[in-house]
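thought: fold this chain, then report.
action: predict
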Amino acid sequence: MIDSRHDRSRLEQFRAMEKETTDPFAARLVHEIVTELEARLERARRRTPESDQVRTDMRS
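observation:
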């Protein structure tokens, strides 16, 4: 099971790290991690659009 909340949190952390990283090799590595996390979250979103709607409805 994919923990979307955890993945979103990790994505934000790596995005912040991506902005701060000055070493070219590290920047590329962090960018790859960000890309993979974004893809993972997008795949999860596509698989469960109705569950996202339920969560949104519950927050209202």
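thought: worth noting. The mean pLDDT is 82.
final: tokens above.
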